[in-house]
Design goal:
- It contains ten helices and 19 strands.
- It is an alpha/beta fold and about 450 residues long.
- It folds into two domains: about 170 residues, FAD/NAD(P)-binding domain, CATH 3.50.50.60; about 190 residues, D-Amino Acid Oxidase, Chain A, domain 2 (2-Layer Sandwich), CATH 3.30.9.10.
- Helix 4 packs across helix 10.
Length: about 450
């Protein structure tokens, strides 16, 4: 068995001391959670408002889900787009998708203004489909994207697919028939079961290193109104009419607004002294999913890529509930040399209570075998090659009931705000959420959004 050893944490070379909260404090805004969502919220709030901000992190900055993810930057929801349209309507669903895609520009702003020089690569990534239903979901998405003014995502269907020439005419122009080899070449596989491939913008980023670097920038630039306290777990939030009291062990923080920038699965007691209770519903509608990943080093002879493989049950994968794997390849500094790091993920399991997730859990050998079976049967390498997995890690993801991030004020008491819910693809939504929170803190009246927290009443 292997320890929870993340390649993103490995790259952090930190000189900043850990400072815990040792006395009571006051500030305009408290941000709870020091991952990419918390730092992005702090970045835009400090830049766009005059608020004093304190960030409280239970452990160390970027060492939670932000340091234990797949490191893939993507602008999609894990729910089919047509389901979002059915739930929210075409206008709001399209605006929500557009907001996430505009977060590519927000991350560029952060890089420019903070003067970051850490590795961030953008490219075209691929999704490989093996069933007719998967293909139809993508075609439905393309029609809805086009109707809302969004660019359709190119879809290539194998000429060998038995349904290829019988697709309804309403989907004409939203796909292209190509030789089967073109599908497999894009997916870098020799596995013939894939019948179609889509392409969309993707990227790779060490979100833990990004978060730490931005934290250092903010502490320097806004030294007079920004503080970070680590190893400072918030146990309770008491909401009043115009302020909040945070219980941080033996200390307290009194603030005008509090923003939860977590994965939404954090064992936090919330007491609304100004009205109806919040705590029960808030905590019991977030589902926790543990994602497990592995990584190995290769010669740096290929470009960065991100590929998702949507499988059908087949030999070697019959015992999987969700036959789905993803792979990313990126440049990586290791042992004073430059290599490609191949990251693999897919195996995951749900947990009903965060208390059942233990960060120090070892990585089970069965998971490594499952991942090894995947890479040798799908990814274009020698099946007899022995792979040494340098990194094996897992992280807790919080899923909101509808798979959409919560961004905005709590309807029962707007002193409490949210930028939470990983939902599997959290980097761009976290950054977008930070910008949206800053606009609200600045007094802007925003239009309704799919990200608005639900009114429990």
């Amino acid at each position: 068995m292997s320890k929870n050893y993340s390649p993103w944490i490995h790259q952090i070379s930190r000189t900043r001391p850990i400072v815990a909260l040792h006395s009571d404090i006051e500030a305009d805004v408290a941000i709870v959670g020091g991952g990419i969502a918390g730092i992005s919220t702090a970045f835009f709030a400090l830049r766009d408002t005059d608020k004093s901000i304190v960030l409280l992190e239970a452990g160390k900055i970027a060492h939670g889900a932000t340091g234990h993810n797949a490191g893939q930057v993507a602008s999609y929801f894990e729910r089919p787009f047509h389901e979002l349209v059915e739930e929210f309507g075409a206008v709001l669903a399209t605006e929500g998708q557009r907001d996430i895609e505009l977060a590519w520009e927000l991350i560029d702003q952060i890089y420019t203004e903070a003067g970051l020089d850490i590795y961030f690569s953008r490219f075209i990534g691929y999704d490989g489909f093996s069933t007719f239903d998967q293909v139809m979901d993508h075609l439905k998405k393309n029609i809805l994207r086009a109707a809302g003014g969004l660019k359709p995502e190119m879809l290539y269907i194998s000429e060998d697919a038995d349904f290829g020439k019988n697709i309804s005419e309403k989907y004409a122009g939203f796909y292209t028939l190509v030789p089967h080899k073109e599908v497999l070449d894009r997916l870098e596989t020799g596995k013939s079961g894939f019948i179609a491939v889509s392409e969309q913008p993707r990227g790779v980023l060490n979100s833990a290193l990004f978060t730490e670097e931005v934290a250092q920038y903010l502490l320097k630039k806004y030294a007079g109104r920004f503080s970070i306290f680590e190893n400072s777990k918030v146990h309770k939030v008491v909401l009043k009419d115009d302020h909040a009291l945070l219980d941080v062990g033996t200390c307290s923080a009194t603030v005008r607004r509090v923003v939860l920038c977590t994965n939404g699965f954090e064992n936090l007691e919330i007491f609304n002294a100004a009205g109806l209770g919040i705590d029960t519903r808030f905590h019991h509608d977030i589902n926790g999913v543990v994602g497990r990943m592995s990584g190995y080093i290769e010669t740096m002879n290929k470009s960065p890529i991100a590929i998702s493989y949507y499988l059908t049950p087949q030999p070697g994968f019959d015992d999987m509930e969700d036959p789905y794997f993803y792979l990313t390849r990126r440049a990586y500094e290791y042992n004073h040399g430059r290599h490609n790091l191949i990251c693999l993920g897919g195996p995951q399991h749900a947990i009903p209570d965060r208390e059942e997730y233990v960060f120090e859990y070892e990585y089970k050998d069965e998971v490594s075998k499952e991942t090894d079976s995947f890479v040798k049967s799908l990814y274009d390498i020698d099946p007899n090659k022995k792979i040494e997995y340098i990194f094996s890690w897992h992280g807790l993801m919080g899923y909101t009931p509808n798979g959409v991030r919560r961004v905005g004020p709590e309807p029962l008491n707007p002193v409490l705000m949210y930028n939470l819910g990983c939902n599997g693809v959290g980097i761009l939504p976290s950054i977008y959420g930070g910008k949206r929170i800053s606009r609200i803190l600045n007094g802007e009246k925003l239009s309704p959004s799919i990200f608005d927290p639900h009114d429990q009443r």
